[in-house]
Amino acid sequence: MKAWTRAARSGPEIPDGYLYEKEAILEYILHQKKEMARQMKAYEKQKNEKKAELEELTKAAKESKVKGFLEKEMSIVSKPLNPFERRSGSGGLGGQGLRVGTEGQQQTR
Question: pTM for the complete prediction?
């Protein structure tokens, strides 16, 4: 059976003289629907990968920031202050401050 005969039997003819095969049109629509679904799935996968990559970069940036802060904090060197020792340059009482003796009694300078 020739293609034009099959088309003439299964499809309508419009006044301009074109023949349309209904089965071929439906196959094309089905094919396009499947192709669009495949492309949408690929797009969603790509979008999720990009989102995961962005989240990973954000997490790495935060960790880097925290690490930098901790390194700076650990590099600060200070010795503990003894509140009972007189520091040089403190001039609150002009050298007339109180001193704690070894027996725990206060002595005036």
Answer: 0.46
Residue 23 amino acid letter:
E
Q: What pLDDT does residue 63 have?
A: 96
Please state the separation of Cα 39 from the chain's center in Å. 25
For residue 60, give the amino acid letter: A
Name the token pair of 50.
């990009």
Quick: pLDDT tens for 53-67. Answer: 999 999 999 999 999
Residues 102 and 96: their CA atoms lie apart, in Å, by: 19
- How far is the C-alpha of 38 from the C-alpha of 47, rounded, in Å? 14
* Closest to 36 measured CA to CA, from 47, 44, 25, 26: 44
- pLDDT tens for 13-68 read 677 777 778 889 999 999 999 999 999 999 999 999 999 999 999 999 999 999 99
Dihedral sign (CA 60, 62, 65, 69): negative
Neighbouring-strand partners of residue 108: 98
Taking the domains of the chain in order of start, what are their residue ranges? 42-74
